[in-house]
Amino acid sequence: MTTTEVARPPVRTGDTPAVTVRGLVKAYGGTTVLDGLDLEVRRGECFALLGPNGAGKTTTIEVLEGVLRRDAGEVSVLGEDPATAGRAWRARLGVVSQGEGAGQALSVRETLVHFARYTSTPCPVDELLAAVGLTEQADTRVGSLSGGQRRRLAVALGVQGRPELVFLDEPTTGMDPVARRQFWQLVRDLRADGTTVLLTTHYLDEAAELADRVGVVAGGRLVEVAPPAELGAALRREATVRWREPGGWREVRTEQPAGVLRDLLAAHPCGEVPDLSVTRPGLEDVYLALVGATSGGDPR
Ligand SMILES: Nc1ncnc2c1ncn2[C@@H]1O[C@H](COP(=O)(O)OP(=O)(O)OP(=O)(O)O)[C@@H](O)[C@H]1O
């Protein structure tokens, strides 16, 4: 178990979920993007939506934020329907979308001070600057920030009002590795404070690092939901035993690698089995299998 996992407070499974979605349908023109998507995000958890480009992750998030109308399905976010909820509900959400948000002419600090007026209990600006690693850029004009620094500012604006639920749509795209790790810490801190986090990402290491559970969107639905380490449990059971023989590489896929190893060692009584390795699929292998499995038809 990692220190990150030890530090996580428990997800509040007894409470009403932060997000409940049943049978969500959304089409653009004649093209159906979401085709009966079900989703539940528990209070206090970090949930990561994974899926290929165009799978419908942003569409899902925008429906949940109330900025996009759905065609069918039931949606509840913090107990209200986003299609009809008002300003008080909106103030309980934090939104970090993919687009550029802030104006260019103000400095980073001025931007945060400006938007603080729209929230009732904003985080202190210096605390926010430190949390997203922008202390040194506090007096820099937004227009002069790098792409990654703008993402950090967008994250700061999204969490400024201490929201109960934060939507983070590909939050670390364009960030360098140091900034990504700083951002991960920020998400862990939010999570430790009891904030519910729903994020989309293409980085599987990010999902594994941050998420209590991940959901894979493909074919307009959530095809699997599980903690990152348990995603694709059936796929993960199969190990690959690989070794070299005089004629070339040999490979056996099996759910009982110990038996294969016993036979191999018996066949090599005098020495080692050349280049022997035993591997099981990682998160990336499982993800690719889940996404690939849906491209040719209904995965269920
Ligand atoms: N306003 C729109 N009008 C028409 N089609 C749209 C619109 N917005 C999104 N789409 C289409 O809907 C599909 C889903 O898009 P969406 O942005 O939700 O996917 P995504 O999973 O977030 O992708 P990515 O990982 O690339 O961000 C895509 O095929 C996209 O082209």
Automatic annotation (TrEMBL):
Bilayer topology: Peripheral membrane protein
One example of a Gene Ontology biological process annotation: response to antibiotic
Domain of life of the organism encoding this protein: Bacteria
UniProt keyword Membrane, yes or no: yes
Classification via CDD domains: ABC_DR_subfamily_A
Entries under PROSITE patterns matching the protein: ABC_TRANSPORTER_1 (PS00211), ABC_TRANSPORTER_2 (PS50893)
ABC transporter domain location: 19-244
Main location group: membrane
UniProt KW Translocase keyword: yes
UniProt xrefs under InterPro entries: AAA+_ATPase (IPR003593), ABC_transporter-like_ATP-bd (IPR003439), ABC_transporter-like_CS (IPR017871), ABC_transporter_ATP-binding (IPR050763), P-loop_NTPase (IPR027417)
Signal peptide positions on this chain: none
A Gene Ontology term for the protein's cellular component: plasma membrane
Keywords: Antibiotic resistance, ATP-binding, Cell membrane, Membrane, Nucleotide-binding, Translocase, Transport
Cellular compartments annotated: Cell membrane
GO molecular function, one term: ATP hydrolysis activity
Family statement drawn from the similarity comment of this UniProt entry: Belongs to the ABC transporter superfamily.
Protein name (Swiss-Prot/TrEMBL): ABC transporter ATP-binding protein
